[in-house]
Design brief:
A hairpin with a 2-residue loop joins strand 3 and strand 4. This protein has five helices and four strands. With 130 residues, it is an alpha+beta fold. The two termini are 22 Å apart.
Length: 130
């Protein structure tokens, strides 16, 4: 990706961004775990791009979900590291972009419980990233 291809981000640096390739939009996000830093890239549709651009909360929630799901595939203490798959990305993206606000809030609470995060961890995560 060339810097001029970037079409959307909320903050420069260690945070997600979207760039436009010749054929598609690409959602990129960094994930770190211990001594490993990885960057992930997945194709998104123009409709997905527009939704993420129009709704900062959904943009932030998507990164929150992706960060912890991707980290769980390779992070410290992971017995069998593996690649974070496109279908896993699509699941997170569809949750963040299509659930109602009430259902999304409930999902975030359940997700945080599953990941052993405090109930309000999303607020500190979002504040630290964005």
């Amino acid at each position: 990706m060339k810097k001029e291809d970037k079409v959307y981000c909320l903050k420069e640096g260690y945070s997600p961004y979207i760039y436009k390739s010749e054929k598609s939009f690409i959602y990129c996000f960094p994930v770190s775990s211990g001594h490993i830093d990885l960057n992930f890239e997945f194709i998104i549709s123009k409709a997905d791009f527009e939704c993420l651009k129009e709704n900062q909360y959904r943009y932030k929630v998507l990164y929150f979900l992706l960060f912890f799901e991707a980290q769980s595939t390779f992070g410290t203490g992971t017995e069998n590291p593996r690649e974070f798959r496109k279908d896993e990305f699509e699941t997170c993206k569809n949750i963040a972009l299509t659930k109602s606000e009430n259902d999304l809030a409930l999902y975030i609470k359940e997700f945080s419980d599953k990941m052993n995060l405090s109930e309000n961890y999303i607020k500190s995560f979002i504040k630290s990233v964005f």
